[in-house]
Structure formats: structure tokens, C-alpha cells
Amino acid sequence: MSTPDEAAAGRDVAGRENTGRPDEGADARAAASDLRSADDSEGTWKSKFVGVFLALIFGPLGLFYSTVSGALIMIVMAVPIYLITRGDWWFSIGGRLVCAVWAYAALYEEDGAPNPGRDSARLLNQAAALEKNDVPQAVSGYEEIIRLFPDTAASQEAARNIQSLTRRK
Fold first, then answer.
1. Residue 104, CB half-sphere, CA atoms under 13 Å: how many?
2. What is the distance between the alpha carbons of residues 132 and 124, in angstroms, rounded to a whole number?
3. Percent helix, strand and coil across the chain, each rounded to 5?
4. Which residues contact 140 (CB under 8 A, 6 or more apart)?
5. Average pLDDT over residues 156-168
6. Phi, psi (5° rounding) for residue 38?
7. How many CB atoms lie within 10 A of CB 51?
8. What DSSP character marks residue 20?
9. Measuring CA to CA, which of 50, 65, 135, 144 is 20 to 30 A from 152?
10. What are phi and psi of 47, to 5 degrees?
11. pTM assigned to the model
């Protein structure tokens, strides 16, 4: 008879049989989690529904939940438009709809879900910043982009940058 530890040794957290194959999406998820900035921690997660709801109800003031800079921009833009239109009903409805779309877009961008376009751009920027100080690390970063995002514009740019860096040596 086997012990519980021996029985669990061949199983993953959910109790499924461990095939020994690596998780195919693990690399992309790890890269995406590495790209999170310091202010994008787990404690700052915000609901898209709540953000859109607040923006629809309170307009630019409700946008403060999603993005402070967006709320300030909408308030600054709303004052002259309000004076021009004299606060017609379409101003109120249109402004709230714009705020709701802005809230959703801001929270979607803030979401930690993998986004190949955003994630590859961030990795390219990180590797480019390393080019002046640490060329081998920059080449390694570009190789990682090629591995994580094959057949994309980012991987093609990374390949060109690797060629450029290796010619400089």
C-alpha cells in the first residue's frame, strides 16, 4: 500500500495525472506576469462592471474609479463643451457613454491577462533599454521575444535587433 505522498507524487494540484509535459502556456503567462509594473499588484484589481456602472451613473466623477487621469481629462474637456451646448440632454448621455467606454478600456488595459501586442512591446522596450549597458542580456531578451511571440512583427523586429547588435561587436 502506498502513502498519500507517494500517490500524490504523480498528480498535479487538481489531482490529474502528471504527464511530465510542461504547460504550453506557462511561458507566456510567466512573461506576462513579469511584465506587471510595481503598481499593478494583485491588491489593485478592479471590476470592469463596477467601473462602467460608475461611469454611466456619475460620468467623469465615476471615471475616477478606473483612471484618475482619464477623469481629470474628461472634466477639463466637459466644462467648455457644457458651456457651448448649455448642458443639453445629449451632452449628459454622450459624456457618460464616452466615460463608460474609457473606463472599460482603462480597466481592460490594466487587466493582467496576457495580451501579445502589449506584452511583446513591453519586452521589446525592456530589451532596447539594455542595449547600451548589457548587450548579452539585450540579445537574450530579444531571443525570448522570438521564442514567446513567433511569426509576429515583434519577433521580426527582435531578429533585426539581434543582427544589429551582433554586427556591432
1. 9
2. 14
3. 70, 0, 30
4. none
5. 85
6. -65, -30
7. 26
8. S
9. 135
10. -75, 130
11. 0.48
